[in-house]
Amino acid sequence: MSVDASLPALDGLLRASGKRTRAVFEASLNDRYGEDDIIARTRLAVKIRDEYAEAKDLPAALQAQQGGVGPARPKQPERKLITGPVADATSRAIATIAPPTERRESTLTSSSTLSKALALHKTQRVTQPTYHPQWKLTRVISGHLGWVRSVAVEPGNQWFATGAGDRVIKIWDLASGELKLSLTGHISSVRGLAVSPRHPYLFSCAEDKMVKCWDLEQNKVIRHYHGHLSGVYALALHPTLDVLVTAGRDSSARVWDMRTRAQIHVLSGHTATVADVKCQDSDPQVITGSMDSTVRLWDLAAGKTMVTLTHHKKSVRALAIHPTEYSFASGSAGGNNIKKWKCPEGTFVFNFSGHNAIVNTMSVNAEGVLFSGGDNGSLWFWDYDTGTAFQNMSDIPQPGSLEAEAGVFCSTFDMTGTRLITGCADKTIKVYAEQAK
Fold first, then answer.
1. I want to staple 160 with a disulfide (CB 3.0 to 4.6 A). Which of 133, 153, 208, 306 is the partner?
2. 347 near 304, Cβ under 8 Å?
3. Looking at residue 137, what is its pLDDT?
4. Residue 140 pLDDT > 50
């Protein structure tokens, strides 16, 4: 009996010893002498009281200054659960108001609606891509002595301009492919071109940090835009404002007043080369793609970032804005490297999967054909609405060129959307045409 009477006391001593041992050697968290729930809650309550007692309520002086936070939310009428004889009377009253037939019809209607919703959810909705004719190489134009890095079509669809590594800007007749004019002035590779739809101006940028405005009536430079700290890789004209946006290797995009040459904004935030920039007349009015693997949407009025898109895993080198749809596409390197976005928030729509190359250039026409050109000479044509590839081919280097000179650096559709002009690493300009249906 004495042994049995000493068992509870012995158990208490063991627990106390175990807790002391745990306090000294807190190495094993799975032992049987863990902290009791009541002790843990008490310890936490004491700690909260000691640390936050003074900060729990505002001082009287500050409490008097506190005003209303905002309009109060309207109070909802409270719904009470009624049981007993009163509830039976209420249910009888509801039954009197609503005849049994109506109740049965409402139940049937709700069940049929639910079944329709479930059936719609279970059906796999597949959007059929729009039919697009095949594209075919129709003309190869030679004349540059370096990689063709930029191309732009004039709004009248009569001629187009190209810039290359030979530092020369050449004007070509779009119908015949004949050389009309050569403009010299840059001292490094010409990386960007844009023709103004409202003025007789051609804008160019190059790796010599220079941005030039050419008067096409006099065929000479009339303005320079100074400010970039390194090579300028892309430029774009605003559709409605007299504003020019340039971007380059100094990790910034710069907004210029076209006429006064004043620098309106420096769009800073990217951490690597800004490879491409696009403008549209509605927010976001400026979109940039950078080697830091991000796409930024900019507020042009404030000169600040609206949204930063971080979905790409590698450097973003190409952007394409749809001419009529409120969306754009971006291209980088690797798998799932072309992505479609919806404006103005930059909502991700889907991936264009299949073009496993470094995408240097992209263009889209009003008929919903997206073109992507790769650094390895691969050419892909996509249905812009569904992301389905309907044609792919390879750029063929011209005789005398290396096999490695098959890359496509720049592209643009003409104003009709039926011809595609590309600038290539074999120093040629290739024109693709849409075949008749």
1. 153
2. no
3. 92
4. yes
Residue 309 CA, distance from chain mean position: 5
Which top CATH class is 135-434? Answer: mainly beta
Q: What is the phi-psi region of residue 219: left when phi exceeds 0, alpha when psi lies from -120 to 50, beta otherwise?
A: left
Amino acid making up residue 353 = S
Our measurement of the distance from residue 3's CA atom to the centroid of its chain's CA atoms, rounded to an integer in Å, reads: 78
Long-range residue pairs from 209-213, CB within 8 A, at least 24 positions apart, any chain: 209/248, 210/186, 211/235, 211/244, 211/246, 211/256, 212/185, 212/186, 213/258
Helix (H) or strand (E) holding 349: strand 347-352
More confident residue, 290 or 47: 290
Place of tokens 């729009």: 130
pLDDT at 216 over 60: yes
What are the boundaries of each domain within the chain? 135-434
CA triple 170-171-172, angle to 5 deg = 115
**Pair 297, 307: CB distance under 8 Å:** yes
**Residue 339 CB coordination number (10 Å):** 21
For the chain, the residue count is 437
Cβ atoms of 266 and 251 within 8 Å: the answer is: no
Residue 365 has pLDDT above 80, yes or no: yes
In the chain, pLDDT over 90 holds for what percent of residues? 45
Residues with Cβ within 8 Å of residue 338, at least 6 apart in sequence: 329, 330, 331, 332, 351, 352, 355, 359, 362, 370, 372, 382
What is the Cα–Cα distance from 19 to 26, expressed in whole angstroms?
10
**Beta partners for 221?**
214
Which residue, 252, 260, 214, is CA-closest to 232? 252
Residue 3 per-residue DSSP state: H
d(CA 413, CA 323): 11
